[in-house]
Specification:
- 25% of the residues lie in helices and 32% in strands.
- It is α/β, with parallel strands linked by helices and 246 residues long.
- It folds into two domains: 116 residues, Response regulator (Rossmann fold, 3-Layer(aba) Sandwich), CATH 3.40.50.2300; 93 residues, OB fold (Dihydrolipoamide Acetyltransferase, E2P).
């Protein structure tokens, strides 16, 4: 049995979701919460396996609430915030359901949950926070948060990931926010046919390369559409040429 908590400020939305979940006997709704603070209390006291979480609520947002948790359960967002599939870098986002929730999309989300239950979980530092490990596709929309600023970005619009200590700088448009994610963890979730590990510090979007030049020591120099110049290490140059040749 999977214990679930519904966190949403709209009572009608909570009731509608509970009604839909009656078709899934493996999900037991153990509590509801009308705001982020109540949600944190329910999670701390009941330790659910799953939360259905609204994003925009009075006071704190769903993302604010997740940031306050020491250990996050699986999260399925239920929101009218955006109509793209949400793949979150920073939070344990299993799926995203647009209100009003469609029964088929709910079934898909629960199927994903069941698939995740059967997989080993990735561990971050010593906190044992489970995170999403599914492969991201170029047309997926990803959530990026840096301080108070948030973006929903199509993955194909991201031209570069740059390692900065324990963080990664994400380059899209004129923005360069930092996310708490290692380059190795990102590389696991990115399609290697589109996102190429140029060197120890950079992953580049192959489709946003403007120019390629030979570089010293047998390497290459890539110029991206944003103007950034990235060196491809000698070892990775061999792999790059193999990928790009007919």
């Amino acid at each position: 049995m999977i214990k679930a908590v519904i966190i949403d400020d709209e009572r009608l939305a909570r009731n509608e979701l509970k009604k839909l979940l009656q078709d899934f006997p493996e999900i037991e709704v153990v509590a509801e919460a009308a705001n982020a603070n109540e949600g944190i209390e329910k999670i701390d006291s009941l330790n659910p396996d799953l939360i259905f979480l609204d994003i925009q609520m009075p006071g704190k947002t769903g993302f604010d609430m997740l940031a306050e948790l020491d250990k996050a359960p699986d999260v399925i967002f239920t929101t009218a915030y955006d109509d793209y599939a949400l793949k979150a870098f920073e939070v344990n986002a299993l799926d995203y359901l647009l209100k009003p929730v469609e029964p088929k999309r709910l079934a898909d989300a629960i199927h994903k949950l069941q698939m995740e239950e059967g997989k080993d979980r990735e561990i971050i530092s010593d906190e044992e926070i489970p995170v999403n490990r599914s492969l991201l596709h170029e047309h997926d929309q990803v959530f990026v948060k840096d301080g108070e600023r948030c973006w929903f970005v199509k993955l194909s619009d991201i031209r570069l990931f740059e390692s900065v200590g324990n963080y990664a700088k994400v380059y899209f448009g004129s923005n360069k926010p930092l996310i708490l994610k290692s380059l190795n963890a990102l590389e696991e979730r990115l399609n290697e046919k589109i996102f190429f590990r140029a060197n120890r510090k950079h992953i580049v979007n192959l489709r946003l390369i403007e120019k390629i030049e030979p570089y010293f020591n047998g390497g290459l120099l890539l110029e991206l559409k944003g103007g950034e110049k990235i060196e491809v290490s000698r070892r990775q140059t061999v792999k790059f040429k193999e990928m790009m040749s007919l």
